[in-house]
Each structure stands twice: as C-alpha cells, then as structure tokens.
Amino acid sequence: MDMVVDNLLFRNLVDQWCKPNCNPNDENELREELKSTALVSIVCNELNISTCGNNSTGKKRRCNEIDDEETAWLPYLQKLRNWGKSISSLPENIDIQDVKRFLIDSGFKDEEVKKYKSLCSWEHKQGVHSLRTQIVPCDTRLCAIQAAVNPSFATDQDETKLVYIILQRSSAKPVYTHCTCTVGLRKDCSHIGAVLFLLCDIIAEGHEELPVDPTCTDMKCKWTDPKGANCEPKMVEDLHIYKAKFGTKPSSKIVKPSASFANKVFKCDISQDKRLEKKLKLKNDILIANQRDSIPPIFHLIGMPSQNGQNAESQINCEPTLNTPCEGENLEIELQETVSFTCQESDQNSSVSESHRNIEVGDELISPPKYQPVSLSEIKERADKIKRKLFVTPEQKSHIEEETRDQADCEAWYRHRKPHITASKSKRAFIKPTTSPTKAMKEIMGMNSTITTSFMKDGQLSECGIIEKYSEIKGVKVSKCGLFISEQYPFLAASPDGLVGSHGLVEAKKIHPRENETLHQALLRLHICKPSKETPGELVVNENHRYYFQVQQQLLCTPRLWGDFVASDGKSFYIERPTFDEKFWEERIIKLEKFYNDTILLELAYPRVKNGLERIGKFGLTYDNLLRM
Asked: Are strands 529-531 and 174-179 parallel, antiparallel or unpaired?
C-alpha cells in the first residue's frame, strides 16, 4: 500500500468507522479478526480516501463519472432516428419560472433573468425551427428535444446551431443540454433558452403538435430588423442628441432639466407635485360637474386631503371650491353632437363600398348633453336609456333583420350593429383580467383605421362562390339574411352568411394556403382546426378559435340549432357542423356582459376614448357602481 497511515491517524479513522457501525461488545473482536491492511481499506473506502497513491479523491471520481455520463448523451442522441412532432412525449406543463431557474443555474445573472424578455434567449425564439421530440428509449421518464436555431436568418449552414435537450417528463427539469455554439460548452447558451421559451408558448397555447418547419422564404430577413432597434433603455436626459458633422467631434452634452434630472442633481422630487396636480384637476372636474348634486362615490377614489385639512367625507356636503378662479375651466372633456365611426371587418367579410366605410350618423342611442362635463348621475341616466333601447321586440328584431339583408352594402346595417358586440368580434371581448380593455373596445366599436389586404378583398369576392358550391355539395338552399339581435342578451348581434332551412345557418371562410400546402395543412397551421382525438386523420374546429366563437354567437342570436362552418381555398372544401352548446355560454356570457357594461356601455354613455381621452373606467368607475348610486 503506497499511502502511509500513522498510528494516531489510523486509530482516529477506525474509531470514526467502528463506533457508528459496530456494537461496543463486538468492536474488539472486529479489530482482532481484521488485519490492519484490510481495516484501513474498509475505513478509507467509507471515507472516500484513495488507497492507491496520489490519485484524485472519491468526490473527484464521482465528478468524472458524471462528466463521462454527460459526454455519452451526445452520441446517443445523434443516433436516434424516430423524431416526431407530437407533444405527447413532452411534460404536461413547462412554466416560465422553470426556464428562469434553469437560466440562473446555467450562469445568467438574477437581474438579467428578472427582465427575461430583454434577453437574447427571448429574442432568438423567432429563429428556432426544425423542432422535434421523442421519448428517450433507454429511460421513458425522459424526453429528448432536437432543434435548430438560426437567429440571424443567415443562409450559411455554419450559422445554424443544433440544440439537444433532455427533460424530465414529470418535473420539466433539464437533465442534459447541448448546443454546437461556442457558448454552449459553458451551459449559459441563449439558443437553449430560446428553445425552452418556445416550448413554454407551445404548451401554454394548447397545441397538439409542434409547429410545422418553415421554409427559408417564410422567415423574414435580417435586414428588416434595424441595428439600433435592440438597445438598452435610457432616460431622456441621458440621451446625447447632436448634429453630426464629418471631421468634427461631437459637441459636449447639453443638459435639459427634467423631473428625474431635478431629483438626481438638485435632490428635489417634483413627481409628487405633478401627481397632485393631476389629481387636483380631476377633482375640480368632478366638483364642477356636481355643483347641483351631492358628490358621487367616485370622489373617494381620488384619495386627496381637503384644502382645509378636512377629510373627503366632510367635504361631500360642502360647496365646491377651487384654488384659483381659473382652475377647472380648461377641461379636456369634449362631446360631439354626432358620432363618427370607422367600420372594420364585418361578420361575413363582404364587400364594402368606400362611402359606407367612413360615415357620420346621428346615433339613435346617444344624445350628448349640451353642457359639459356631465355628472355621474347623468352618465347613469344615459346608460340606462341605452340599455332600454337595446331591448327589441320580436317585431322590431324581424324588421331590423329584413332592413339589413344587404349587410355591408346597407347603411342601416352599420347603424344597428354599432352599439352591439357582433359575432366576428366575440372572441376579442374575452380578455385577461390584467389586460386593459381599451384596445379590445376600440376594435369592437370600429374606432381603429381599417387596413384592407389583398387576401381580405379576395375573401370578400369569393364568399358568394363558396356558398353556391356549398349549396350544390349539400343539396340545400341558402337564404339571404341580415343582422340578428339576441332577444335574451340584446347587447349581442350576429350576421350569418346565410340561413339553411328552419334550423341551420352557414358561415363561409376563404383560406389562403402557402405554396405546396393543402387546405387541411393550412387549417392546422392557422389553428382553425385541430386533429380529432376520436377519429385519427380527421380534423375538428378548434373551440378556442375566433371562428368557433363566431358560429356559437350566431346560433345564440338567430336562434338556430346548428351551423355549417365552410372553409375553402377555391378548390377543396372543409365542412363541419357545430351545434349550439349551452355549456359553452354558461360562464362566458357573464364575462361578456360585464365587459359590455363596464367598457362599451360607459363609452357610449360618455364618449372619451374616441376623443383621445382615457376611458372613464380608468378611474375605477363601473356600471355596478352607477347602479348603487
């Protein structure tokens, strides 16, 4: 034995091993039975001490074994052949937090990972392609992922990085990662993070398969992304703006004081003053509007101390007072006698004449007050008036449907659909609780400018031909129809493409596949349909797509029992017949009505967003608050 152990060290080692492993009575017998060499070997093995010279310790041997195991994964993965697009082999849930923990363990800084959307890993998602997966044959608890990443979209094959990842199927924890880039040897590779972020999006969106590999012409070129677009954000006062001249150095920085600059240089915080000024302006607006009424509950949302040191409750019954005579005169509240709106995509995407796209009509439901600003009691009265006029009798509903059968070619069709949530915008109204509803409201009410693409024009022109071909295939007669307003939920409306018999309707869509792509492949790529679980090889309409929401709202408003969804590329046809689903509307109708009351109804009663102002709901006002007044 090359290693020499003195008597004192030997006794200490023996005591450390014998006492926890032997009874006190058997300790002496064990010492006599075992020779010193054998006993030293046992003790050294238990304590991970090498007995063969100055080689590495047991801990280092284990590290070498781990390194050997990781090195063996790469050739094993390269030999696998059964790669596929099914996500059944992936973990059921891959969360963003799991990816962030992996990035931190790989060497990324905590501050960088907190702002993960500014990382290169997040930006490189668009460069991930050829994503494939399979269960590891030697261990079914693991799944292997193969992907190619080309964030620069270069044509050189050397710029494409090949990524391998092995995940635990139960916890989604990465077991092994490899990338062919230089940084991939150090494990803190942005390409690996890009693949993991993309997997999070795919699983969160509920796809059945991984995305189809795009062709080289489908990916946008690098020169479409300006070089200066990706830069660290800076304060305005830190920007150095100057006029460059050839042969001369940049001029010295000219300081332009701002709020943050004053706080940094002069140690004075004026942000509170600006915030107080904004609150005071809002308070004055409300005081002026309520000079003849008591101040409504919205006053408590301001949270401002009174000018006389009293609280807000003591001021409710007081006369409104302003700091200066000029305060409250320049109010940014404007209402118009006429309501202008820009019509957007119609329910059936039919042709629209330019004279009907930008048109000012006197809104029958809205009569703006003569004196501004209005009080909350007036807003409540106008909201109640709008809701009363939304209710239509069966005779009125039938008259509106007959009057609007020309749909996009009829001015009455635009006028009647404006105060409603139409079927084509039904999915847009279901927003997350943390999302501002302003954008959705502007889109539903047609406040945004309309962009007509060549595909949209082709879809409008092809709609009649698709319906005629559908009528021949099914052997049915399709009747022309107009705008249907729901009797039970009068804030909803729908315009089907046609009626079939006494129980059905039809909704036609023109699909534009890519080159060498079939209609079924295009429907899967656009997530309009998904593979059927009951019948392999067949497709069913995606219940989370806006087209499915559109058909269900049409069935609710007409009312009809079934609707044929027809998709065609001009040659092939896909026809499916969804039926009216009551469970689909059990929870959704409540959310839809709340969205209408708190956003669209208040905007109709008190137009602000259309005038460039913030919606009144920004101040915490809801329709339920108005009802409690």
From this structure: unpaired
* Residues whose CB is less than 8 angstroms from the CB of residue 519 and which lie 6 or more positions away in sequence, other chains included: 511, 513, 567, 568, 569, 571, 572, 573, 574
56, β-bridge pairs = none
d(CA 512, CA 214): 16
Give the dihedral of Cα atoms 608, 612, 613, 615; nearest 10 deg: 50
* Cβ proximity of 84 and 134 under 8 Å: yes
According to the model, what pLDDT value does residue 485 have?
93
Q: What is the mean pLDDT of the chain?
A: 74
Angstrom CA distances, 569 to 387, 472, 506, 517, 520, stand at: 42, 17, 17, 11, 10
Q: With 80 as the cut, is the pLDDT of residue 153 above it?
A: no
Buried b (16+ CB within 10 A) or exposed e, 7-27: eeeeeebbeebbeeeeeeeee
Which residue in this structure is represented by tokens 């069709």?
A: 413
Task: Quickly state the pLDDT bin for 544 (edges 50, 70, 90).
Answer: very high
Sequence length of the chain is: 629
Structure tokens at 385: 């008036």
**74-115, pLDDT tens digit by residue?**
888 888 888 888 888 888 778 888 888 888 888 888 888 888
Cβ contacts of 167 within 8 Å, gap of 6 or more: 90, 91, 94, 142, 143, 145, 173, 174, 175
Contact call for residues 58 and 50 (beta carbons, < 8 A)? yes
Query: How many Cβ atoms from other residues are within 10 Å of residue 566's Cβ?
Result: 23
What span, in angstroms and rounded, lies between the C-alpha atoms of 370 and 59?
Answer: 85
More confident residue, 361 or 103: 103
Q: In a 3-state reduction of DSSP, which class is residue 70?
A: helix
Residue labelled with tokens 């990916």: 219
Phi, psi of 564 (to 5 degrees): -90, 120
Per the CB < 8 A criterion, the answer to whether 466 and 474 are in contact is no
DSSP secondary structure code for residue 553 in this structure = H
Whether 428 and 546 have beta carbons less than 8 Å apart is answered as yes
Task: DSSP letter for 295, please.
Answer: P
pLDDT confidence bin for 351, thresholds 50/70/90: very low
- The residue among 580 and 113 whose pLDDT is bigger is 580
Helix/strand/coil percentages in the chain, nearest 5: 45, 10, 45
| Cβ(94)–Cβ(199) below 8 Å | yes
